[in-house]
Write a structure and sequence with these properties.
282 residues, alpha/beta, Rossmann fold, UDP-galactose 4-epimerase, domain 1, 2 domains, 13 helices, 16% strand, globular, Ergot_Alk_Oxidoreductase
Amino acid sequence: MDTRPVLVIGGTGTIGRRVVAALRDEGVPVRAASRRSEVHFDWDDPGTWAAALDGVRAAFITPLDVPPSRTPALVGQAVAAGAERLVLLSARGVEVPGYFGPESVITECHLAGERAVRTSGAAWTVLKPAWFAQNFSEGLFRDGVVAGELALPVGGGRAAFVDADDIAAVAVAALTEEGHDGQEYELSGPRALGVADALAEISRATGRPARFADVTVEGFTEMLAGVGVPAEDAAVWANALTPIRTSGDAVIADGVERALGRPPRDFAAFADDAAKSGAWEG
């Protein structure tokens, strides 16, 4: 048995902490690395990289999507340190011009990371998920859900929201099993929903109202500015919502099925489990 650890960069994040937990459940040695982990890793401080990478056999990489991309440098250092397998968390649609709006910084950062792992010489897998269902329970959308009204500039657009547990399960399979090398998995849920539909599922699960309010992009960025979000970050979020607004993320992908041999979890199941865990309490 290979006792070298699997490194999870972003090990305290939405996907990373699920990957860490699932690997530990399987008895795989894990090294969780982030700015808040015991193994300190900071994308902005390359001096922290070597200790995180030392002696690992594989790495799950949650990139920093702020230019310039640090992922190519990290990938080179990982392979030099002996990592034999790399699994990169990218994003759906980054190869499509305008998918994230006309001035998105997301696209090139992810594409640079994808190019780096593909040409690294290590075994590689790229995960390209749609919008996470968990944005409603632990991300950008949660406060609005708890308040009873979620205001977003998405109109009647739809998305096949994917459960973060499914993304993590695909990552773990790619890190620990054969048959995933050189694969690009586009990940989505099994059906497309508008934000109003998603909130209706959450209301059903919680028994509390959760309404959708459509706002303009300008109104959305002003709203974020009002709670202290820097203008640049607010613009990034507004662009990131483009795939919902345009229904670009509404297309059902087969990546979960191909990787795991089962269908992805439905949003209703996510809402039920999140409600039971108290995700929207207080």
